[in-house]
């Protein structure tokens, strides 16, 4: 069965068609604002085994679905990389070729936290520049003003859409994770949770290294773990993210880095609405793990 095609004004999963995988490739498949850059950083630190990476993350770990760079040029860049490759994607696994030579890492974050982070990120993106790079036409008029966060979040919870129409919608988030959850027993599929990365960065890095068959000298671990902390990444935002591009502020990209913002924004009835909607979109065992319900087994 061919991969599902996911498209937005700046992304197209069809760019994966014909991608020449090689042994050891690492594909990071996440929804927006769910820990993508964090996982890219962790994997790059494990591959290069130095706290100071040799180039910005966007060069070391390019976003394959993004249409701002011609596909052939991006493939050539990846082909020229002599090291183990780390490839970023926001496409669910059913939209990516699953190759036995590659390991696929899916990062989950509480959807309400992801949504709040997405809302704030919207103010930090130069949309006009993204449209130019992706070859998209300019809109006919100015965009409508965004509603306040609480109103926007409530609308996001109840938005009637599909994953293929809106990958960053609640149905899109839940489908991305449900599809990965169903594959979690496959040897080259690995799930990670944002809260686990926060609570025990070093332990999660060691778990990932084990699954990726990467050996790290004991003396190197403290420096690598420190480089992967939120505070250290925020302090080095310009170096990690590279020169200004589509972001208005590199440091603002690393805004808060903690959990609970979404639940803080909603009343008890609002949370009940979210939980009812989530129960319609994902299986109970996934929701227990995703929402960190007590007694739920991790991955």
Please describe what this structure looks like.
The chain is α/β, with parallel strands linked by helices and 299 residues long. The protein has a domain at 13-109 and 124-144 and 173-255: P-loop containing nucleotide triphosphate hydrolases (Rossmann fold). It has 16 helices and four strands. It has a four-stranded parallel sheet, sandwiched between helices. The longest helix has 14 residues, at 268-281. The protein starts with 25 loop residues before the first strand and ends in a 9-residue tail after the last helix.
- Estimated structural class: alpha/beta
**Reported CATH architecture of one domain:** 3-Layer(aba) Sandwich
**Strands, count:** 4
Give the low-confidence spans: 248-254, 294-298
Shape: globular
Q: Which band does the percent of strand residues land in?
A: 5-15%
Largest beta sheet: what is the strand line-up?
A: 2-1-3-4
Order of helices and strands: EHHHEEHHHHEHHHHHHHHH
What is the CA-based Rg, rounded? 19 Å
Largest sheet: 4 strands, parallel
Mean pLDDT: 88
Measured as a percent range, the helix fraction is 40-55%
What is the third-level CATH name, the topology of one domain? Answer: Rossmann fold
Task: Report how far apart the termini are.
Answer: 27 Å
Question: For this structure, what is the CATH homologous superfamily of one domain?
Answer: P-loop containing nucleotide triphosphate hydrolases
**What is the CATH class designation of one domain?**
Alpha Beta
């Amino acid at each position: 069965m061919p991969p599902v095609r996911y498209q937005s004004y700046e992304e197209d999963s069809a760019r994966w068609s014909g991608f020449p995988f090689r042994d050891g490739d690492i594909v990071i498949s996440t929804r927006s604002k769910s820990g993508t850059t964090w996982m890219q950083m962790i994997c790059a630190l494990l591959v290069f085994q130095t706290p100071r990476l040799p180039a910005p993350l966007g060069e070391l770990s390019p976003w394959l679905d993004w249409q701002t760079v011609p596909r052939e040029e991006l493939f050539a860049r990846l082909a020229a990389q002599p090291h183990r490759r780390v490839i970023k994607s926001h496409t669910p696994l059913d939209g990516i070729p699953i190759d036995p030579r590659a390991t696929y890492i899916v990062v989950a974050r509480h959807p309400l936290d992801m949504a709040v982070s997405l809302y704030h990120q919207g103010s930090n993106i130069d949309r006009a520049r993204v449209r130019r790079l992706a070859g998209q036409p300019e809109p006919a008029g100015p965009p409508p003003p965004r509603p306040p966060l609480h109103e926007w979040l409530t609308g996001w919870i109840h938005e009637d859409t599909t994953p293929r129409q809106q990958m960053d919608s609640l149905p899109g988030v839940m489908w991305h994770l449900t599809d990965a959850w169903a594959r979690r027993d496959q040897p080259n599929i690995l799930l990670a949770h944002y809260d686990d990365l926060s609570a025990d960065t070093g332990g999660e890095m060691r778990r990932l290294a084990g699954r990726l068959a990467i050996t790290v000298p004991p003396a190197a671990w403290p420096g690598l773990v420190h480089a992967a902390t939120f505070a250290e990444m925020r302090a080095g935002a310009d170096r990690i993210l590279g020169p200004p591009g589509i972001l208005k502020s590199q440091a603002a990209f690393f805004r808060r880095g903690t959990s609970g913002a979404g639940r803080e924004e909603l009343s008890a009835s609002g949370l009940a609405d979210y939980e009812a909607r989530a129960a319609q979109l994902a299986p109970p065992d996934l929701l227990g793990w995703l929402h960190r319900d007590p007694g739920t087994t991790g991955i």
